[in-house]
Amino acid sequence: MRLGDIDGLLPLERELFAGDPPWTAEIFRSELTDMPGTRWYVVAEEYGGRQVVGYAGLRLPAVAGEPADVHTIAVASDWQRHGLGSRLMDMLIEEAVAHRAGSIMLEVRSDNEAALDFYADYGFQRLAVRPAYFHGGRDALVLRKSLDVSTGERSDESDGDNRCL
């Protein structure tokens, strides 16, 4: 993701995270410019670069063995259930492994069944509950997936495609 991608992904951010509230352009800019050595983001565009259809971001571990944190993952409604979310998650996991993260963590709304099923398929396990973490008093579930830093490989043997559209 580059600074020039921000305007293109904001409509998607507002659509998918309307009640949470969505991140602003300033938050994305801060993530990309203020902390470039500790963050990693990817954007997926429709063929030909006409429209942003997904994006994901990760806070990298400061030292080997620490967790990486998924800051965001989003896929346009029309592109959901077509493998794009899996491509984005594969890329986040691969980047976390490349930076020797011991695990990868995230927060997800406790009422987001589709996301919970998606993360369960990736082997994420429930670690904790953060009461009223999201807007409107909705709880967050803290999920974690262990990674194998000794070999530099993911602890599951998926062979995801690294290309994003």
UniProtKB/TrEMBL annotation:
GO MF annotations in UniProt: protein-N-terminal-alanine acetyltransferase activity
Domain of life, source organism: Bacteria
Ranges where the N-acetyltransferase domain occurs: 1-148
Keyword Transferase appears in the UniProt entry: yes
Keyword Cytoplasm: yes
Gene3D superfamilies given in the database record: 3.40.630.30
Entry-linked InterPro entries: AcTrfase_RimI/Ard1, Acyl_CoA_acyltransferase, GNAT_dom, YpeA/RimI_acetyltransf
Record EC number: 2.3.1.267
Keywords, comma-separated and alphabetical: Acyltransferase, Cytoplasm, Transferase
Enzyme class: transferase
CDD domains xrefs: NAT_SF
Family: Belongs to the acetyltransferase family. RimI subfamily.
UniProt protein name: Ribosomal-protein-alanine N-acetyltransferase
